[in-house]
Amino acid sequence: MPNVVDYFEVGSPDPGAARAFYSGMFDWEVGAPSPAQYSMVNGDAGGLWDTTEIGGANWAIFYVHVDDVHQAIADATRLGGTVVLPFVDNGRIEFAHLLDPFGNRFGVWRPKTP
Hints:
By secondary structure, the chain is of the alpha/beta class. The chain is about 20% helix and about 40% strand. A hairpin with a 3-residue loop joins strand 5 (about 80-90) and strand 6.
């Protein structure tokens, strides 16, 4: 099912405050952080990422499920977008963060297993 928005993520250098806000606001269940400082939200609907180790940025983004992350990066840059977080392969998924020409952050991703 390519090109479908099917994941979201909140990045924050203060994950405790982000957890408190979103849990209080929407009753989200935020799991314990992984060794990479990533917490799953409502099972696998989304994530909360402690960005302290990767520059301390704040973001709230959606992810689009694509067939080929490298191709999506190439298409975005060809169309005037920029790469914010380059291609990552964490063993289970591949992903990248991009900016559209208007400055909106979004992600593209692909699971490595069917």
